Amino acid sequence: MSHTVAVAGASGYAGGELLRLLAGHPEFEVRTVTAHENAGMPVTAVHPHLHSYSGLEFAPTSAETLAGHDVVFLALPHGRSGAIADSLAGIPLIVDCGADHRLTDADQWAAFYGGEFHPPWAYGLPELPLAAGGTQRSALSGARRIAVPGCNVTAITLGLAPGIRDRIVMADDIVAVLAVGTSGAGRSLRTELLASEIHGSAGPYAVGGVHRHVPEIRQNLGAAGARNVTVSFTPVLVPMSRGILATSTARLAPGIRADEVRESWEAAYGHETFVRLLPEGSFPKTADVLGSNLAAIGIAVDEAAGRVVAVTAIDNLVKGTAGAAIQSANLAVGLPETAGLPVNGVAP
Amino acid sequence: MSHTVAVAGASGYAGGELLRLLAGHPEFEVRTVTAHENAGMPVTAVHPHLHSYSGLEFAPTSAETLAGHDVVFLALPHGRSGAIADSLAGIPLIVDCGADHRLTDADQWAAFYGGEFHPPWAYGLPELPLAAGGTQRSALSGARRIAVPGCNVTAITLGLAPGIRDRIVMADDIVAVLAVGTSGAGRSLRTELLASEIHGSAGPYAVGGVHRHVPEIRQNLGAAGARNVTVSFTPVLVPMSRGILATSTARLAPGIRADEVRESWEAAYGHETFVRLLPEGSFPKTADVLGSNLAAIGIAVDEAAGRVVAVTAIDNLVKGTAGAAIQSANLAVGLPETAGLPVNGVAP
Amino acid sequence: MSHTVAVAGASGYAGGELLRLLAGHPEFEVRTVTAHENAGMPVTAVHPHLHSYSGLEFAPTSAETLAGHDVVFLALPHGRSGAIADSLAGIPLIVDCGADHRLTDADQWAAFYGGEFHPPWAYGLPELPLAAGGTQRSALSGARRIAVPGCNVTAITLGLAPGIRDRIVMADDIVAVLAVGTSGAGRSLRTELLASEIHGSAGPYAVGGVHRHVPEIRQNLGAAGARNVTVSFTPVLVPMSRGILATSTARLAPGIRADEVRESWEAAYGHETFVRLLPEGSFPKTADVLGSNLAAIGIAVDEAAGRVVAVTAIDNLVKGTAGAAIQSANLAVGLPETAGLPVNGVAP
Amino acid sequence: MSHTVAVAGASGYAGGELLRLLAGHPEFEVRTVTAHENAGMPVTAVHPHLHSYSGLEFAPTSAETLAGHDVVFLALPHGRSGAIADSLAGIPLIVDCGADHRLTDADQWAAFYGGEFHPPWAYGLPELPLAAGGTQRSALSGARRIAVPGCNVTAITLGLAPGIRDRIVMADDIVAVLAVGTSGAGRSLRTELLASEIHGSAGPYAVGGVHRHVPEIRQNLGAAGARNVTVSFTPVLVPMSRGILATSTARLAPGIRADEVRESWEAAYGHETFVRLLPEGSFPKTADVLGSNLAAIGIAVDEAAGRVVAVTAIDNLVKGTAGAAIQSANLAVGLPETAGLPVNGVAP
């Protein structure tokens, strides 16, 4: 029995990717797509790649247009999801791709985002290994309100969480540097996102601990069992549209031998469909997962440096956003977790 | 009075860049260019962008073709420079862009490169601040044999050396992740360097402390005053031809306040032509230095993480190789250090 | 009832794309994948994006390994398909992605390819409007041997064929210039295909009428009704992995008014699933069809120049190769023509 | 004796490139740079690659700030140059990079641009071979007002003008398709110029004869001797920042043999520094001329199609704009034509 779906804020990149994936979903049926500035326009005028939506127009984003659906996906700027969510009380399942319901700590919200704090929703990272045992998946089964993780957060968290939980690595001096594609910045008209500025160039942003994803990383690694998490996190914009390649390093815990490291990751992910641990000596590139819901991870032990290096590749728009939203929604409504989600990348 | 120049191994990317820069040099006059496989071909058949070399052909690389020049630049694979250098004893100045004469420690050579060890030459990183005071520049004045640093090494070294020398940051747990362009891998026919594999994708290589540049980084930071250097170094290939964006982090030394950090870098580089420290809150992208001999550096203090983050952008073929070679040669023969070296990048 | 499938030559880009698409096909079941040099290797070692093929290895390409399947897709270099096809007489359906069975004229084969001529197979471009009425689709229903068109050929043919058939445009002075991605050149280790050579650069190849696709374009437009076809065809390699953007122009036939042009294309493609005629004033970009089996076409009449301009975007690996192969195979075995074929692109 | 220079509208890409090239010019000394929105900002805040301009700020663009210079370069949007030029009567030399003074025909201006028509200035394409004999160079010596050609126009004109003048090819059915980089569209905040939209994609614009460069192409080929020029011109935006690769085709004139074609181009360009005719069978790519003032041209005769194909590569910001401006200014003030202009490209 299929579920009717509305996607709010569907004129951006995350919203477009939700539509692309939902078009191939066997049980979710998109009935309504909404937008703010683009209300009234054909979907294909904004997303000319979404040929299957020919004939459909964006409705305005409002409580009225979203009412009456079984599932509502919100792909709105942060601050907007929280505001509208209150008026959607009757919707059985809401999945928020924005940040409004991710953080559990109001002070961290105030420090990194500001504005009104909204209480956290079930956190949509099913594969996150928990200190308490099991995975975050258990919190998603039957959930009615889900917060989709930040894309950078997903890449770093999946890269390091197994070793954190198993006390193989220490969380007190994590360093993560991410090569990120431009779609993560959204469809924003900013000079620094123009193609002429991005072609042939790599440059960082939000350097020095100010990126909004920092508290969410700490929160996740805390859930995996870390007491004191410190993370130096630097995203680097590189000339590609999609993809995150996270190089995350953590110090090897005292007394742990190199040959004990790998089995922690194998235990965490050996049975996961959407997390692929690569063989010893292999590391992923983002093209390997482009368009798919996979996180591909390679790990190495640098004994001279005393650090474990975890390299994680995800598609920021799929496993980093829209795919995670659908995966979590599948769990929430009792569908197979993998329904409608590609496992093969589009390459070359 | 001009100096006659030969460039050996000029059919690769580093050699081509030497030719490009030397074409605009007021005192170095290219007389001979040599190649191995391409001997006998017109220079413009291999480097169609070097229009000013129309009419010139590659000679074979040999002691005979290189003899009789005032300056010989070697742009050969490692292992080859050392072998040919012995037969060029009469050349007043040899500048080696390869690795053969960089390392001072034969054990490190054996561990990371293998093959015959060659004694170190004067190290061609003029701006390197030394523990003993002053800079590496003093070792280059009048030098007859110069080893050009590795490109990744230059980016990391320049990023962190001031704080290391001034004991602002600690060298015992450095983490550096570099977004690097494909030209650093040379003109090698390898599947993973095909455009179809690289477009729209980021992926690491030499993960886990095995990259050959590791001992050279340690050597440099040792020269800057560090006792025990450990460095976790991960290069990430991104879809651009040129450029290195190094994100290098080091732990803040105990007792150092955030506001004490910046002056160390200012003191080291305030008078340097080719190292530009960006204003507080600004960070470079590689396009800012493309085609130029500049290293542009931005630094931030992440107090929560207890780390200083230094972001360095260089053009791997210029400041990372050919520009460094010419800058060092300028010093060696007593020319103005800046002769023939662009300070403006080519952008967008 | 599903059909067992083998893919021969599956380690190249076309073969990889066949595997990607077949993984999502409801009725074709890949049992065997073969390769030449990579025989014995895991599929995911060569195609790390094809996670669903984990555990499968390449068999050698031979009559033995291909025997016994319902459908064999050949993704071999030209000259190789013809040779092996003879030994596969018992296979119910063979679909050749190479050139060996495309041309009907042995002289043209000799002039443009050389080597042994093989008789033509049913030509796999279902939407091609025929002078005789109807489309090429009718030749594919029940076919046992199918030749998949060349990718550039598909883009130009679909762009102009309606107007040719309806005598809206003339075929005697066609000019087509194509921006093409690098994957069309295959996984070949050639210097000019290295990422460093391709980034930030556009350059032509096969200039002046020597490209092997020229006779096939003439053959198709002849099938659409043209008597004397001449075509000036220039492919330009641009920095992207996938996609063909064909700008094809033909002179307006005498007496045809601009407002009569559009209806010809509308009549030809109005009911086609995989050819999308864009609204007046709209033109496609290759990202609109990336990963999908669509050809998106925009047309304009340049009255001052007396020419119709047809701009066609396809993904060279899908509608240009692997998607066309599967679409034709669907027709051949009586499945819905659209089975397993994406209509939405992957963007941004 | 050096000439004082002001650059108006210097915060865009054309203006930035003027500054880059002028920094290396031996006789032009930049005293003033102006901007509209960015007035008061440091030059390096807008152009972080122009390190040599550290310390300089943008003045507002006005008659007052531009007064008193020997040479004023205008890099303003069309419509703006004409307006301000009237107030700069006392400036010895004004070089306009915009369109306001290019067209000789007021009707064409009205049809393609609209707004006030300004009388034409000396046209800055020195190498243009004229029907009357000689080149356009003669009109530039001593000129006081110069209009720099449109970038696409330069590429097409240089590609075909020799054959037009020598009646080797016919001008009545020219077809030109250009692969163009994004910098040609300027630093405009438009969604379709965002990196995410451009990466990995090629798409046309101004299809069907509506591009503003059409009348200028006709004007130039008329100056080369054509009576009736018709040109079908389609620019295709491809994923690179700089560069134009123009594929221009014209029908071979009746009675002309293929072996008579080449000498026309050789005669026109054999002595030109900035136009390089490639050897038979060779064709340029844009990387060959990136950052340089060269136009590289390859020609082929497609006998079957009855057309000559001229492939021209230029850097749109150099030979297409800023380099042409400086080359023309050199001629105007009596300096060596090549002063300050690079002939080698920056590659790879």
From TrEMBL, chains A, B, C, D:
A molecular-function term among this protein's GO annotations: NADP+ binding
- State the similarity comment: Belongs to the NAGSA dehydrogenase family. Type 1 subfamily.
Q: Gene name on record? A: argC
Q: Which residues form the active site?
A: 151
Source lineage: Bacteria, Bacillati, Actinomycetota, Actinomycetes, Micrococcales
Q: What is the superkingdom listed in this entry's lineage?
A: Bacteria
| Any one Gene Ontology BP term | L-arginine biosynthetic process
The alphabetized UniProt keywords are: Amino-acid biosynthesis, Arginine biosynthesis, Cytoplasm, NADP, Oxidoreductase
EC number in record? 1.2.1.38
Q: Which reaction does it catalyse?
A: N-acetyl-L-glutamate 5-semialdehyde + phosphate + NADP(+) = N-acetyl-L-glutamyl 5-phosphate + NADPH + H(+)
Q: Where in the cell is it found?
A: Cytoplasm
Q: Which PROSITE patterns match?
A: ARGC (PS01224)
Instruction: Name the InterPro entries for this protein.
Output: AGPR, AGPR_AS, AGPR_dimerisation_dom, AGPR_type-1, NAD(P)-bd_dom_sf, Semialdehyde_DH_NAD-bd
Outline the extent of the Semialdehyde dehydrogenase NAD-binding domain: 4-136
Checking Gene3D superfamilies in the record gives: Dihydrodipicolinate Reductase, domain 2 (3.30.360.10), NAD(P)-binding Rossmann-like Domain (3.40.50.720)
Pathway listed: Amino-acid biosynthesis; L-arginine biosynthesis; N(2)-acetyl-L-ornithine from L-glutamate: step 3/4
Function of the protein: Catalyzes the NADPH-dependent reduction of N-acetyl-5-glutamyl phosphate to yield N-acetyl-L-glutamate 5-semialdehyde.
| Chief place of localization | cytoplasm
Give the protein's recorded name.
N-acetyl-gamma-glutamyl-phosphate reductase
**Gene Ontology annotations for the cellular component aspect, listed alphabetically:** cytoplasm
